[in-house]
Amino acid sequence: MSLVALDPNEIIDTFEVVQESNTLMNFLNSQAYPNQIVVVYFAEFPCKACDDQKAFMRALPNKYPDVVFFQVPKGSPITKNNMWCNDVAVYPTTKFFKNFATTQNCTAYYIGYGPEQIEGWIQSHLEPLQ
To answer: Which Gene3D superfamilies does the entry link to (predicted)?
Structure first.
């Protein structure tokens, strides 16, 4: 499956872009810190809510340097061949993973525009890396 051509205006430049399942799964399963939070953000452009939330999302990696942030572009192969990414139908969607290597589960998700909810979840689950 071929990768999606990316428009630089669609990319959140402070996030790691992930399009292939192996990249995400290798990271989730081999986390150096079991309690590390991983945020996976799904957006499409044009999308009013995605556009409105972009500046907020761009600031998160600098605010929470111990959290890993991935962006999955719409139509990427991972959205078809990864069970954690193939159920997104509404944009934006944010998925949260913590202790994935142990739980093998998505800890939480948020669908739609929701800066307060996204940051609130991170703040309530953030702990020093072990």
So the answer is: Glutaredoxin (3.40.30.10)
Q: pLDDT (tens digit, 9 = 90+) per residue, 67-89? A: 999 999 888 899 999 999 999 99
Asked whether the whole model's pTM tops 0.85, one would answer yes
Query: Residue 96 domain-assigned?
Result: yes
- 84 Cβ contact partners less than 8 Å away, ≥ 6 residues apart: 24, 40, 95, 97, 106
The CATH number given to whatever domain includes residue 63 is 3.40.30.10
Number of compact structural domains in the chain: 1
By C-alpha distance, which of 36, 28, 53 is closest to 127?
36
User: For position 31, what pLDDT does the model report?
Assistant: 67
Domain hosting 30: range is 8-125
CA dist 77 and 17 (Å) reads 12
